[in-house]
Amino acid sequence: MVPQTAEEVFMHEPALEVENEIGFDFTAVPFFTSPLMEVCKNMQEIKLKETIHLPAFVCSGKIATDLPQLGLKEILFYHRHYSKSIDELTALENRTVHQNCSEWRVERKLRLTASDVKKIVCRVANFEALSAQILKKKDEVLTNIPAVRYGLENEDYVRHTVQQRNPHYVVRKTGLVVHPIEQYIAASPDGLIRSGEDYMIMEIKCLYNPEAP
């Protein structure tokens, strides 16, 4: 039996009439795509061009995203928070350079951090426990942890020292950096270093001695 595409299967099916419970004429709304969808489309084209050519039968199949079924509430939430343009994401990073400000806390809480993603990728079982652990950490106030507070108090000194010892570097603080495509993922690097055409992320670790005066 020759496989059929979705268009061939449903070509002659009559359109379903769905009862509109909220009285809104959806047919009057012009078709549009969000910036997120446009970026995803372009990225998919790049991936197809850069990868090895697949057999014709496989290439003729439709690309499906591995996303769960979402209700209207979840869809609206997703597009409200995870469909921002590059300019909006850049502005967000600039506004949250002073990490731990209110906007940084709110936007970070809406996303998986780079540390969360590492735990998910490395996990092999019991994902329910991991998700509960990640959600629990969302409500933690990091500055209440003495070691974290000590690190925050000394980060500027470390960045300044790195800049002094490496005059050819340009060192700056960073805010909340959101993944341009998977916008539910974000990171807060301790700094960004530019050296000519090269860029490096700075990760600062301050040794903390709880018994020190």
TrEMBL record:
Entry's InterPro entries?
NF-kappa-B_Signaling_Reg (IPR051703), PDDEXK-like_dom_sf (IPR011604), Restrct_endonuc-II-like (IPR011335), YqaJ_viral_recombinase (IPR019080)
Give me the segments passing through the membrane: none
- Source organism superkingdom: Eukaryota
Q: Which Gene3D superfamilies match?
A: 3.90.320.10
Its GO biological process annotations read:
DNA repair
The YqaJ viral recombinase domain sits at: 103-209
PANTHER family referenced in this protein's UniProt entry, alphabetically: EXONUCLEASE, PHAGE-TYPE/RECB, C-TERMINAL DOMAIN-CONTAINING PROTEIN (PTHR46609), YQAJ VIRAL RECOMBINASE DOMAIN-CONTAINING PROTEIN (PTHR46609:SF8)
**What name does the UniProt record give this protein?**
SWIM-type domain-containing protein
Origin species, per record, is: Trichonephila inaurata madagascariensis
Please spell out the taxonomic lineage of the organism that makes this protein: Eukaryota, Metazoa, Ecdysozoa, Arthropoda, Chelicerata
